[in-house]
Specification:
Blueprint lengths: L21 E2 L4 E3 L7 E8 L15 E9 L2 E8 L3 H9 L28 E5 L2 E5 L6 E3 L6 E4 L15 E2 L6 E5 L9 E7 L5 E8 L10 E2 L3 E6 L2 E3 L1 H5 L5 E3 L5 E7 L8 E5 L3 E11 L2 E9 L21 E8 L7 E5 L5 E5 L11 E7 L9 E8 L4 E6 L5 E2 L3 E4 L9 E9 L4 E8 L9 E4 L10 E5 L1
Antiparallel strand pairs: 1-5, 2-32, 3-4, 3-33, 4-5, 6-7, 7-8, 8-9, 10-11, 11-12, 12-13, 14-15, 15-18, 16-17, 18-19, 20-21, 21-22, 22-23, 24-25, 25-26, 26-27, 28-30, 29-30, 30-31, 31-32
């Protein structure tokens, strides 16, 4: 039903690791900045029990924490103890299959809840939250990484919660959405907000033009945008053993634009040709226009056509693309253009500029100079126009994860700080935490925190100071 990521071999870093561990004093190559004090938390899929038919997206969440303190570094990793993880751990075998639905031979006592909490980890209003897009946030104890359980904000939050909430750098408000809000493979979506003190202040519902997998969304100072792109969900297909989610380009693209001061009843839908975006770099307002920089591909990677045929892998590569919405236009008013031809993913900015014009951005990129095109093997630094300022490529055989920006001080200038990212050393089969000067990535890492084991390719993470 799904395109399956093959069993990992020596050329990739997708296979899970089987252990949880702690390392109090890690060796460091170079010198860690002593001002860099806090923890980089990172999340990713790490199945407790491997399955030959498992899709990478649906493995159990494993958290990796790199704590940096006055020039020293330590590490800890833990699985998120979701109901699914606990049930399989007690049984000593897999109980869930595709889309983390219960297997036919799973005992009745196993919960229906297939949450894996494997996509992101964010800190807001004093809570550390492990996220995936089909369930409520899972609260994590900072430092120990112990799982505290679901966090529903005193019962005010119900239904799915995105893995990509947006935190307003001015107000501290966290905005979120959820797809499949009325049930699996349905087009009802939710939108809500949580204030800086951790109280849910709004929760609304609306119907998208069609049911779709919506991984990320767009927020500016005064607007929220919902990209509905044709990675469609279909209960009709699912009931006939066809792909529940599939690339269906005839549906076209819809982007809903809503004023933050308005309601979901005010959404204005812009139309466009079929494309796909997993991740948004940033967006801002420019007079009557909204501008958004996204990582766009021609087709949705890793998912098939509705009839099960695989999509073309080359068309699934993402490139930095600028979307523009003319709110004053009486016609559609939506345009887009690619800003670079290099493949990449996991775009990040200085989060103090989230929803505001930014002059710097970074993302992990592929190297056209190596035969492993498609693997993320370097970093790109761009300016506010999306023009490439610098690029850094790893030695052949190594791969890189999402870069996370950390400011030198809370009031430092934009981009005055460091980029933190995890690098897999393919020849040594282990990983480093790399620290770059964010304004000079071409110089290479200024410090490498060296692990004795590898950290599998993962998804997203964030820095928590202190």
């Amino acid at each position: 039903m799904l395109q399956v990521i093959g069993i990992p071999d020596a050329c990739d870093n997708l296979a899970p690791i089987p252990m949880e561990c702690d390392a109090a004093f890690l060796p460091i190559k170079g010198e860690l900045p002593r001002e860099l004090n806090g923890t980089l938390y990172r999340n990713g899929a790490n199945p407790q029990f491997a399955s030959p038919n498992a899709h990478w997206f649906f493995g159990d969440g494993m958290l990796h924490a790199f704590k940096l303190d006055n020039g020293r570094a330590s590490y800890r990793n833990r699985w998120v103890r979701t109901p699914k993880w606990l049930a399989e751990h007690d049984a000593g075998r897999p109980l869930y299959g595709e889309f983390n639905l219960k297997l036919p031979d799973a005992p009745r006592s196993a919960p229906e809840d297939g949450n894996v909490a494997n996509t992101n980890i964010v800190y807001h209003a004093g809570k550390l939250l492990a996220l995936e897009e089909a369930h409520l946030p899972m609260e994590i104890e900072p430092g120990t990484l112990a799982t505290r359980g679901y966090h529903d904000y005193g019962g005010a939050l119900k239904g799915p919660f995105t893995a990509h909430p947006k935190i307003d750098p001015v107000t501290g408000e966290m905005l979120f959405f959820g797809y499949n809000a009325a049930g699996p493979l349905k087009r009802t979506m939710s939108f809500g907000a949580i204030d800086a003190s951790g109280h849910v202040t709004r929760l609304e519902y609306f119907k998208a033009p069609y049911a779709a997998m919506v991984h990320d969304f767009i927020v500016t100072e005064n607007y929220v945008l919902f990209p509905i792109l044709p990675l469609t969900g279909s209960m009709w297909r699912a009931m006939r053993r066809k792909p529940p989610y599939a690339w269906d380009p005839d549906k076209g693209s819809y982007i809903g634009v809503m004023k933050r001061s308005g309601t979901t009843r005010d959404i204005r839908w812009f139309r466009g040709d079929a494309c796909f975006v997993f991740h948004v770099m940033n967006a801002w307002e420019d007079g009557t226009r909204i501008v958004a920089d996204v990582m766009q591909s021609e087709v949705a990677p890793l998912f098939p056509h509705p009839d099960g045929r695989p999509t073309e892998s080359d068309k699934g590569r993402a490139r930095l693309c600028r979307w523009s919405f003319d709110l004053a236009s009486n016609t559609n008013g939506f345009s887009r253009r690619y800003l670079d031809d290099i493949s990449g993913e996991f775009p990040r900015i200085d989060e103090r500029r989230a929803g505001l014009p930014n002059s710097h951005g970074w993302y992990a990129c592929a190297s056209p100079e190596t035969p492993m095109l498609g693997m993320l093997t370097g970093l790109v630094h761009v300016d506010g126009d999306g023009s490439r300022r610098a690029r850094y490529l790893l030695p052949a055989g190594d791969t890189i994860g999402e870069p996370v920006f950390v400011p030198r001080t809370p009031d430092a200038a934009e981009a005055d700080g460091w980029l933190l990212t995890v690098i897999w050393r393919g020849c040594e089969n282990r990983s480093d935490l790399a620290v770059f000067n964010a304004a000079d990535i071409t110089a290479g890492p200024i410090a490498l925190v060296q692990l004795g084991h590898r950290v599998p390719d993962g998804f997203h993470g964030n820095w928590v100071a202190g």
